[in-house]
Amino acid sequence: MTLSKKRFMADYQAEALHLFADKLEHLSTLQQYQALAFLIKGYYSTNWAQTKATYDRQQQKQLYYFSIEFMPGRLLGSNLLNLGIKDTVEAGLSELGLDPETVYAAEVDPGLGNGGLGRLASAFLDAMASVGMAGNGNGIRYQYGLFQQRFVDGYQVELPDDWLRNPYAWETRKENRAVIVRFGGTVNLMSRPDGSLEAVYHDTDDVLAVPYDTAMVGYHNQVVNTMRLWSAEPVPGGAHSLEEKARVNAITQILYPDDSDTAGRELRLRQEYFFTSAGVQSIITHFRRYHHDLRLLPQFVAIHINDTHPAMAVLELMRVLLDDAGMDWDTAWQITVKTLSYTNHTLMAEALETWPQSMFSQLLPRLAQIAGEVDRRFRAAYTRRFGELLVDRCAPIADGQLRMAYLAVIGSHAVNGVAKLHSKLLQQSLLKDLYMIFPERFNNKTNGITPRRWVQIANPDLSALIDTTIGTNWRRDPRELVPLVAQLEDPQFLTQLQAAKRVNKQRLAALVHTELGLEMPLDAIYDVQIKRLHAYKRQLLHVFGILEAYLAIKNGESRPPRMHIFGAKAAPSYRYAKAVIRLINGVAELINHDPEMAGKLQVVFIPNYGVSLAEQIIPAADISEQISLAGTEASGTSNMKLMSNGALTLATLDGANIEIQEAAGADAMVTFGLTTSEVAQLQASHAYSAKALYAANPTLHRIVDMLTDGSIPGIASEGREIASELLEYNDTYLVLADFASYIAASKRLDALWQKPQQWAQAALKNIAASGQFSADFTVQRYGRDVWDVLPTTGI
Ligand code: 8GP
Q: Taking the complete model, does pTM exceed 0.95, yes or no?
């Protein structure tokens, strides 16, 4: 949009007066932010309404991305950037005596997710708007987001995230689009005169689902899409006791803070059905405004199941088609399969959702009947060809459990993993039986990120340098970063690149100083590992690397100075992960208080990792630690964000690391460790002995002993727990097996650091190759291969 500074300043002052009946300069920073956000919302609302009207008028096929998690991050900066008015607004703010960064920082960061899967969902919404695809989000408006993390005596403490304490400026309550979601009760099937069946419900618990819509503003293209989040409320007019009201409100009160386990609780099941049913119902209502024949649904609607949490969309859509529309089973099933598609995000067995049939039937009696019929027909259709054993292994119901991943595959026309390796492993292991039956459904869609947030907004210095070097086309199409490689031999450019990195390090160092009182020298390597705390991600291996350096320096060895920066939340119920957090904080205390380590080796664990903190850390990183055991990390996306900011990846050949290496070149990244097939062989042969490695490698021996011999303060029980996982339980994630090669790889990075020009060249190769990992391309591949939804603008 076009906007002059003068007009902006006048609008802003008027908005402040209108909202708070006061002058801008008398408002709190939060109020200043809110007035600005409401003003910007007003600027794009016409386009928002117009985008919806255009989709309807042109009867474009629309995609609905069902996800139990979204992590949009702060939206002010990104909305301003995408509207093309960021510079004007910042100039106006400055002229009004306000600091733009301070105003941005007053925005709450909605943590409506746990990690990768939730952030990916939001990146996709941003990307779809930016390439002009008709894509909508469908999820839950949790009243409390992911817990706020503090450290008390080195332990993780979880505080509630009351993110709605102040009104959330970007959302719009759409009371007129509310729908009713039914739980429990009994259901009877009656024949209609035409022979179709009607489901008659008795004694159900009805809940009102009220949507709150947030605009997803496209980049420089006037497209504004919608993320719709549902809130549970008592049905108006009913005489509800306080207790009933509380029970209804509980459905959307909290986000399950777990990124690994199946939260095997009835409330979680209620959450899943709540947003899935509300989403399906509102899609059908909208569809019916334009079409009479529900058989046309797949021509106009695609529904994507983001991991299994919304997998009962298979059953809910069947319910609507059978019961409400009176369709026969075969027609309804065909339409359902054509409409739905599914992404798997993890190979971790413990994350595979299953629901006890008894619980399911009680809460969702009609869906349970339909599930039984899906199971019966699946078995009947495939047993003869594939044998009872195979079909039994992958049927939707077995041993009294509903297996949601299998249901999702059976009820979808397309199934994908999130990196090439992951998609291959899905076919070879987790879903291999269903791959036998439905090979044509399986495909890969490597994840992507939004460089607008992670480079343009988070790294203005790098962005400016790129602009002056190759122009600004990369901002629209990040593949246009490739020509940067022409600067590989340009010492002046490489120096400027280092200078930009230094500015980011300065900013992060200032934050760390304020938060933790630590000094981080700017000439040190900033070595970053930021992601959920999980055994398979092997933060422990990183800690072992730190202790190796500690012992070496103690021993008089000289190493380039390194700051080890961690950000990670542990699921509150995940004991081992919390023990590792305590360990990292213990190692930090040991090292950061040792005068011999000053300026050489420090451990910096910044609490409350999330989207906003990532924006501060990522631009400052020199090394990106992506060190999961090969075959365990589905894709990773912090690996992409860090590479696009010029960090060198220290990586196992896991997830998308492999594709990053292919893109940036073998010399732009340092890899180590067992490969997926070596891991599989080692595990199958039962030849692995952690104890033998412990006995054979003196450094490793020493480090493992440090866990229990009192060298590290405050970890008595946690140290024992971790040591026992390594030695008594034989090291599930092969930390000891990869230790030696990890240290060797890390030393290669130390050596490269001594040659600043070569380091800068490797950083440049990463930046130049990062464009292909833009989510803009990922969603277009989904659009082409899976959803049949094409971009209308953009790249
Ligand atoms: C994550 C994967 O761990 C990560 O590798 C991938 O990049 C990301 O998804 C996006 O595809 N998985 C999850 O976040 C996940 O499985 N969460 C569900 C258990 C809640």
A: yes
